[in-house]
Amino acid sequence: MREIFSLNDSQWFLGAVAPQTFPAPNDFARVEGWLPATVPGDVRLALLALGKIPDPFLGRNNDASQWVDAYDWWYRRDVALDLQENARAFLLFEGIDYQSAVYWDNELLGAHVGMFSRQLYEIPRAAATKGMHRLAVRVSGGKQLPSMKLNPLERAWQMFAGNILPHPPQAREFPERYATLKCQMSFGWDFAPRVLTCGIWDETFLVQTRDAFIRDVWVQGTPDGRVRVTLEVDATRRCDAHIHFRIAPKNFDAAEQSFELPLHLEQRGAYTFALQLDKPRAWNPWDRGEPNLYTLTARIIDSAGEMDARETAFGLRTIALAPNPGAPRNAAPWTFVVNGQPEFIRGANWVPADAIPARVTRDDYAALLQLARDANINLLRVWGGGLKEKRAFYDLCDALGILVWQEFPLAGAGIDYFPRDKNYRALLRQEASAIVCALRNHPSVVLWCGGNEFIPRLNRHVTQILREAVTERDGARPFKLSSPSQNESHNWRVWHGYANTRDYEKDDALFFGEFGLQAAPNAETLARFLPDASLTAPDAEWTYHNAEIEKLRRYALPHAAPSEREIPLPEFIAASQNAQLRGLQCAIEAARRNKPRVAGCAFWQFNEPWYSICWSVLDYARAPKRAYYKIQELYNPVLVSFHYPPRPYRPGENVRGTIWLVNDTLRDVAATLTVWHNETQALRQAVVLSANCARAGAAMEFAFQRGANALRLELRGENVFSTNEYDLNYFDRGSSNPLRGLLQSAAAWLRTRT
Fold first, then answer.
1. pTM score, two decimals?
2. Which fold has domain 345-517+578-634?
3. 626-663: per-residue pLDDT in tens?
4. Which DSSP state fits 540?
5. Sign of the C-alpha dihedral, residues 642, 644, 647, 648?
6. Are strands 403-407 and 379-382 parallel, antiparallel or unpaired?
7. Residue 59's closest CA among 548, 615, 741, 545?
8. Domain spans in the chain, listed from the N-terminal domain onward
9. What is the architecture, at CATH level 2, of domain 3-145+180-204?
10. What number of CA atoms fall less than 13 Å from residue 320's CA on the CB side?
């Protein structure tokens, strides 16, 4: 007998108290005024709903909400309880941000540090009387977050490097965010505001059972139908019982299957069972088959009836990383192999959908993930400066057949290292283990990664703990130390280094993990969050919302003379979006032409967490930039590409290049290739694209014309339609000289300091 009561509603109240060092004493009585609140929620969301702060995402309003961090906060609500004899009650919190203490009536159930761990508290039987009870949660404010404790050498390095190295403000050496395993982005990033979120940000439940409680269900399944189920059970007594498993198709039609096995319960233990499914159906990424899912229900039954039950979804699949064909000897394996077949990764980097993640709903995830699927994306890298997302994100990725590369919440250490003290290591082990346990039943999750942009050699204390957590709690998925590492690239020579976009073609990495260019959102989106005075040309308000104006001009206006650097805003928006589109096209086509030596790519970035001028192809309002539509073409499983030298051509000069045909599917594809130069058909021929292959096709040349020079390519066949286009007039005039790019970057940094 399991009953689950949702506590996710607007029956909560919120109140402020003076800040105290965590763990703080019970100062519930010091709250002077209670305000209505909602869970999942955040203090700022409650205050915004009441009009007590302006919307922090508009203009410079974020400055006006920073006072919130100076207080600690209480949440409270009434909970009705009616326990039967021999029944038990538990409170389950999927996520509280960040330091918290939970009280039932006036009794402390537990204190906790960490944003991502599930918190589970049994209500003591003596306190579980019939009637109404008060549930209260104390949460520390932002100014009470842990701080870094530096030794003299580290303080000297911080003082020296923080003043000398060309870092943005949020990348100061040994920043305070290192001391937490909170969403790193919330301390401020180059596409996100500083918003130190605080609240009960994920779902909350009251669970009632009999005298056994299934704490966790872990399901591992392979395409041949073998299923291994591990139950972690907490019981009040030792007894003989039996376990009943029901496995039913979740998103396809087939008969359900049942299994019944004996079970001797200890008071606390883990129990593993091996099951064999008849006529199994594998889970596949969307471009390789159907993402078939099953639902498993586990029921523990004794002579008096059902003691407890749990349900979870799972899929049958295998995942491995294999060496890339044609890669250097001893290179790290980067080819994703799903169900025994290599899968070229057409990926994107995912960042939190909102800088206040409590606000994100299943509908928000559904809208964004459908846009990802519509863009032919087959993998999302859940970036290490962000979150373990809410359960709905992974449920939807499972259902859509989108692969997930999951990083742990570590990011941006650069040439620093994360804390090495005993308490931090214990916290890391706690949070990493919790993340793995929460996500391991999801077939969409195919890779664990230590985090974003830190040096593994300097952080062995971190990567060792993460590897152990993955091995002990999962063991079925590959683990990467960090991103980038082991023959992976984050190519920021383009953009941050001012390099020519042709630099992407020189990248010899086996996997392209990050690359991209900023682009302004559409004028309608800009008008939502910028004052009218900022809607004529980029200014300081743009910079407040993350625009790197000098670099935007460098890539958006490659043909403009110095006296023509200011153009009307609509033209500037179009130019920046076109530069982003062409840069992504250059990088993605380079990766795809070089398969299988290159195993895939993931552009930076798919979405954004607030109104920003950044690298996203979808703005915060979910309005696509031009590059989004180009990604749909570039990520088609079947691609036709024209490789040519992008440079200035004179009228009458020939543009020479090669047609490339790329097929990521596992079957040969017969199609008709047609090429148009402007409105003139230049080629029409039958072609066959070999399965899972990239090959050079016909060499072609065109006479460059005065005026428009549009090239359009089309592949059309049975169940195949793929297009691509090029503006032969477009090219990047910027230097490919790394020294010049470095000097430009340093000059821009000096301008920001002066």
1. 0.95
2. TIM Barrel (3.20.20)
3. 999 999 999 999 999 999 999 999 999 999 999 999 99
4. H
5. negative
6. parallel
7. 545
8. 3-145+180-204, 146-177, 210-314, 345-517+578-634, 638-727
9. Sandwich (2.60)
10. 9
